[in-house]
Amino acid sequence: MRNRIVTGAFLIGIVIFLSGCVETRILDELSITQGIGFDLADDGKIIGTVVIPVYLKDRPPENDVVSGKADLEKSIFQELQQTLATPITTGSLEILIFGEKLAKEKGILDLMDPFQRDPTIGRTMRLAVVEGEVKDFFEGDYGVLGNAHYINNLIKTDVENGNLPKTNFHRFLSDFESIGKTPYIPILKKEKKDEIDLKGVGFFRYGKIVHQISMNESFFFKLLVDKHSHGWQVVNSDGKKASIQSIKSKHKFRLTKPTPPYEVTVEINLEGIINEYTGDEKISHKSIEKLEKAFEKKINEECLKLIEKFKELDIDPIGFGAFIKSADRKFDYKKWKDGGYKDLTVKIKANAEIQEVGIVE
Hints:
Structural class: alpha/beta
Helix content: 25-40%
Radius of gyration: 25 Å
Number of strands: 14
C-alpha cells in the first residue's frame, strides 16, 4: 500500500513538473492557419497565401486571406508574419494547395519539405492543385465553417462517396518515396464565388504535374488503386442508359508471368445498384445481365486505356513496379525504368454484379 502511495505521488509530481514546462498559448493571440497555398509569380518568386478563420460572435467565421512574396520558399512565412499582429501557427492546417502554373513549371517538392518536417501538421491534411491562382481561390465564400474546412470536406466526401481516389498528405509522401509508384492529388477549380468544382486528378513526375484525368476517368483509376471504393458511372446498353453506383469494389493483382517481360492480371470485383434507368418501366433480369456485361466491358476498356497512357508518360500511379518488386526477388528497377515498364502486359478481368434497382425514368 505504501509503495502505491509513493508511486502515485511521484507520478503527480512529474505531471505538475511537465505542465510547468509547457508553453501557454492563448488562441485569441494566434493566427490559426487552416489553409496554405503557393503560386508562381511571373518574376519567378513564390507567392504564399494563408487563409485564417476570424471567429465572430453569433456569426459564421470570416476568411482572412493574406499573401506574401519571397525568393526562398522558407522565407515566405517571415513575409506573411510581417503583415499579421499575432504569430502564425500551422497546428490546425487542413489544406495545402498549389497553383496550376507552379505545379507544372517549378514543381511542388521543395515547398512540401518544410511541412513534412513539421511535427504539428497532421498526416491527413489534404493536398490539391487549383486551376488559376491560389489567392483568388481562397478569397471565395464557400461555407459557414470557413473556406479551408469546406475544401477539406469537399475532397473527403468525394473520396468516401464519389469518384475521387483516397488522397492526403501521408499518401502522397508514401507514394513519392516508394520505388515503382507515382503520386497524385485532386485538381480543383473555383467556378463562382461560392462554388468549387472537382476537375479530376493530377499525376506527378519529379514533382511536376505531367498529366491529368477527368472525374469520369477517375472512377476507373479508383478501381485500380483503392481496395474498397465507391463511385458513380453511366452505362449504355441497347440504347438505354443506367446510372450505376458502386457500393463496394475491390481488386487483386496477380503476377501471371513472373519473368521479364512481365504480365500482371488485375481482377476487379464490383457490386453496385442502379439509381436511374431510362428504359422499360420495370427492369427485367435480362436487362440487368446486359448492363452487367456492358459495365464489365467498359471497365476493361477504360482501365487499359489509362494504363497505356501512364506507360506512355512513364508514370506509374497504379504501382505496378512496387507490386512486381514485392513479388519478384530478382526485380531490377533500373531495367524496369529502361524499358521493362513499357513492355509490361496488363490484363483486366472485371466482374460486375448489380444487386438493387432504384429510380426508373
